[in-house]
Design goal:
The protein is mainly β. It has a single domain (32-178), classed as Beta Barrel (Porin). Helices cover 14% and strands 53% of the residues.
Length: 179
C-alpha cells in the first residue's frame, strides 16, 4: 500500500516537473518550480484518544521530530510540500532508551495574506504501521536575509494497528526556518 501511494506521488511529481520545464522554455517569466525549502523541530503537546486526553509526558506521548522539506509551485496559488520527519520517541516497552521512525508527510499548502498559510498533509509513519492526515495553520515572519522564521500548529490524526485506531494528537507545534 505504501509503495503504491509513493509511486503514484512520484509520478505526479515527475509530471509536474516536466510541465514546469515546458512552461519555462515557452515563457521566460515563468516562476521556478521550487518555491523553497524548510527545516524545523516539531513537538506534540497533548493527545486525545477515545475520550481520554494525555498531556505532554515523557512516558506516554513524548516525541520530537525534525522536519525538513521542499515546497513546489503549481500553476495556481496552492503549493505542494514534500516533507520527511524523523521522530525520536522514548521506547518504554524494552531496554532501549529510544526508538526512531520516519514520517513521510506530503501535503498541499495554501498561502493566505499576511504570512499565513493553511494546509493538509497525508501522513505515512514508516516503522509504526500508521497512516493518516495532518491539518495545519502556519504563520511566517520574513527575515531581512530572505529567510523566514515560522510557527505552525498541527493536529495529526493517525490510524493503524500499533495504536488504538483513530487517535488524534492535538496541540503539536512546529517551529522552523524557511529558505
Amino acid at each position: 500500500m505504501y509503495r503504491l501511494i509513493s509511486i503514484l506521488l512520484f509520478i505526479v511529481f515527475l509530471q509536474m516537473i516536466g510541465k514546469g520545464q515546458d512552461t519555462l522554455s515557452m515563457n521566460n517569466q515563468a516562476k521556478s518550480i521550487v518555491a523553497g525549502y524548510h527545516i524545523g523541530v516539531v513537538q506534540i503537546l497533548f493527545a486525545h484518544n477515545k475520550g481520554e486526553t494525555t498531556f505532554f509526558d515523557r512516558t506516554s506521548i513524548y516525541s520530537v521530530g525534525f522536519p525538513f522539506g521542499i515546497t513546489l509551485n503549481t500553476n495556481g496559488k496552492a503549493k505542494i510540500d514534500l516533507e520527511l520527519v524523523p521522530f525520536i520517541n522514548p521506547y518504554i516497552y524494552s531496554n532501549l532508551p529510544y526508538k526512531i521512525h520516519l514520517l513521510y508527510h506530503p501535503g498541499i499548502l495554501y498561502p493566505l495574506n499576511g504570512g499565513w498559510t493553511i494546509g493538509l498533509r497525508a501522513a505515512f509513519e514508516i516503522g509504526e504501521g500508521q497512516f493518516g492526515f495532518t491539518p495545519l495553520i502556519n504563520k511566517a515572519f520574513k527575515n531581512k536575509n530572505g529567510t523566514a522564521f515560522f510557527i505552525e500548529l498541527v493536529a495529526p490524526g493517525r490510524f493503524g494497528p500499533d495504536k488504538d485506531s483513530g487517535y488524534t494528537q492535538l496541540g503539536g507545534v512546529h517551529i522552523g526556518l524557511g529558505f
